[in-house]
Amino acid sequence: MAALWDHLHVNNAIAFGSLLGQNGIHHEALQLQKRVVEELRHSLNADDIDLSNSVWDLALTHSALRQFKEAEKLQEEVLTKRRKVLGEKHPGTISASSNLALFYGKLGRLQDAESLQNTVLEMKKEILGERHPDTINASNNLAATYYKLKRFDEAEKLFKEGANLRKEILGDRHPHTVSALSNLALTYRNLGRLEEAESLQEKVLMLRKKVLGERNPKTIRAQKNLARTHYMLSQSASA
């Protein structure tokens, strides 16, 4: 990689590192991107957006290699710089916030993830509107964090809103709609609302079979979820 670096202009190195990452050659991409960031730190102002973008690329490669602590540190740097240079409401800043929240979730820092995801959701509602796909995805991410925090009432509210919007915009059979219904059903189950969970899971299983077929892993998972709810209902009835 050192010999290759000697023959590459930094802009070409950036492009080549990105190409390596896109093709799953992450270890080689990591070495090249580290050299790029090192070079840019020496040649550019610390607030330069090109440096920030290269640090972002390096963070994503660390994440692809499941090196989440390294990715987290770099993403925090990117977010700080983008807030300073671009402002809170710039799409690049919002994307950095969303990505950092995902890293926090993977590291078990759920309270930090929730805080960032709340900010991201409010920004996207304000800028894009509540029905925009990016806003719905942001709402789903926050709902998933509430679920992990066992704050099931808050998770239910967002999962239900998301399921209704996806049904209205995408239709009943769209994979995103079906996934939203599955998440809502699991939340009902954790709230002890087993009959509602059962009803939704039966619908999810029917749709999975129709769209994906009986042997698809998502269909099999839907069968297992429904079977678990049936078991819990039988235990409740015999108690």
From TrEMBL:
Pfam families: TPR_12. It comes from the Eukaryota. SMART domains: TPR (SM00028). InterPro entries: NLR-like, TPR-like_helical_dom_sf, TPR_rpt. The lineage of its organism: Eukaryota, Fungi, Dikarya, Basidiomycota, Agaricomycotina. It comes from Serendipita vermifera MAFF 305830. This is Uncharacterized protein.
